[in-house]
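Colleagues,

For the teaching module next term, I've prepared a clean inverse folding example: a structure given as tokens, and then the sequence designed for it. I'd like students to try predicting residues themselves before seeing the answer, so please don't circulate the second half yet.
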């Protein structure tokens, strides 16, 4: 599926200059035949960078204008890519690139987010739990472990409202949601192919389903360090809240918890099954033509919406509809459920998906020329690009490159033999470093939007990156020293 991490064209182009050409293997990750047939000028990445800067800066200086006009800004930056691309590369190729992006990337991406948003909005937690440091660490740990089994997006949507609710009495709570994004929306998804789409793509290329459990020591180390840091930060803020008179409701004895809408877990499982099918059905001969291409509805001669994606969309939309039909609306009222968060994500990410195409094409065409042949290099290269670019093609580029380097020992996959440490580095870089920015992984921005809606003042785009640089980058440096050298 599609989903989820994003990088600036500048990063993609810069990597082509920073690393010497050393790998002789050819890497090719198909978007469409037309999109991958020829290179494109790097300056076409400018609209993508411009859109990212708009998302980061304009809300700080013109928040009211941005709230009213973000859709227009997305349209302008999209056209600033589409028109020059059409002039440079032709209308036919531009049509293929844009339609392939919309139907095979954005559509499944936003439908998944929509389905999870609807189903999770119909589950609410009531009880006497108060957001203390100990309770928050436990909830973050539970969500982190869930991420590998229902996906980072599923776990984020399931856990975000309960954590917001138990901390509703707190004054200082933005740090809670920042570490929520670090752990639940990103790092926790590394243990199974269900957890994050890059790992699902690896599974489809011969990586055993449970191989990702090899990443547990890395996850355990990172989670332990981050949860320890979080505990001290949360305890400091908790004590300040108490000292200023902010106190939870203690009129009732604590410890009672009641979940309403629990039957929606079944619909959440339906969505997970839909995601798994979207990754496994294309490998079944019944879904392929004689040439090995996935069968589907032809949008153009070079763009096909595959039947596995259609099945996935149908399952997810059915789950969302059934969730609303079978859940009393009072549950959504208790959750302060509105459509604002999903509308904002849908608006911004269609522009991001369209304008990032030049950066993705450059990466696909020139990824093998980066000269990366060490696990530590793969970890940081895949991670840096996955902080801004779609992490699924990024993972595939580096996986294919590693498989073509001629190693004679390691794990045998359909793209070649890959040493275990190399595969660990590519997987961890692609999954973990989506936490570096709000746009690095789809649930990041969704969690931010829901937090904003519930009165939690989240940091700006660059403000969030200060947190990731301060706390995540040192942990990733330790990962490099301990696991990838």
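(Answer key — instructors only)
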């Amino acid at each position: 599926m599609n989903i989820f991490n994003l990088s600036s064209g500048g990063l993609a182009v810069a990597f082509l200059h920073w690393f010497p050409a050393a790998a002789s293997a050819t890497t090719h990750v198909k978007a469409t035949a037309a999109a991958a047939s020829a290179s494109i000028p790097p300056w076409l990445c400018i609209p993508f960078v411009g859109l990212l800067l708009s998302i980061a800066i304009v809300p700080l200086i013109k928040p009211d204008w941005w709230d009213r006009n973000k859709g227009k800004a997305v349209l302008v930056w999209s056209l600033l890519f589409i028109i020059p691309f059409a002039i440079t590369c032709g209308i036919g190729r531009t049509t293929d690139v844009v339609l392939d992006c919309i139907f095979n990337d954005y559509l499944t991406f936003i439908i998944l987010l929509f389905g999870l948003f609807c189903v999770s909005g119909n589950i609410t937690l009531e009880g006497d739990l108060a957001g203390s440091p100990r309770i928050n660490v436990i909830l973050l740990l539970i969500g982190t472990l869930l991420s590998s089994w229902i996906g980072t997006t599923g776990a984020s949507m399931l856990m975000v409202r309960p954590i917001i609710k138990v901390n509703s009495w707190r004054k200082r709570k933005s740090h809670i949601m920042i570490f929520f994004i670090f752990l639940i929306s990103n790092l926790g998804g590394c243990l199974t192919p269900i957890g994050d789409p890059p790992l699902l793509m690896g599974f489809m290329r011969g990586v055993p389903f449970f191989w990702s459990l090899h990443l547990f020591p890395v996850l355990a180390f990172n989670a332990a360090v981050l949860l320890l840091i979080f505990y001290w930060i949360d305890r400091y803020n908790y004590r300040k809240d108490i000292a200023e008179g902010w106190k939870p409701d203690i009129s009732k004895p604590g410890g009672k918890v009641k979940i309403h809408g629990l039957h929606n877990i079944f619909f959440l499982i339906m969505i997970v099954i839909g995601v798994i099918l979207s990754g496994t059905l294309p490998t079944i001969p019944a879904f392929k033509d004689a040439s090995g291409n996935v069968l589907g509805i032809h949008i153009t001669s070079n763009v096909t919406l595959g039947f596995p994606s259609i099945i996935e969309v149908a399952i997810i939309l059915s789950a969302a509809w059934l969730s609303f039909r079978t859940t009393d609306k009072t549950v959504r009222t208790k959750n302060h459920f509105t459509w604002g968060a999903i509308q904002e994500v849908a608006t911004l990410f269609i522009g991001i998906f369209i304008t990032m195409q030049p950066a993705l094409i450059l990466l696909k065409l020139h990824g093998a020329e980066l000269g990366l042949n060490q696990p530590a290099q793969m970890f940081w290269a895949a991670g840096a690009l996955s902080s801004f670019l779609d992490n699924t093609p990024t993972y595939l580029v580096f996986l294919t490159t590693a498989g073509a380097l001629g190693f004679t020992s390691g794990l045998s996959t359909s793209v070649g033999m890959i040493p275990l440490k190399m595969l660990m580095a590519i997987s961890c870089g692609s999954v973990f470093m989506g936490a570096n920015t709000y746009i690095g992984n789809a649930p990041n921005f969704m969690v931010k939007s829901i937090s904003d809606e519930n009165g939690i003042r989240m940091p700006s785009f660059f403000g969030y990156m200060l947190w990731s640089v301060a706390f995540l980058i040192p942990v990733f440096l330790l990962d490099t020293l301990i696991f990838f050298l």
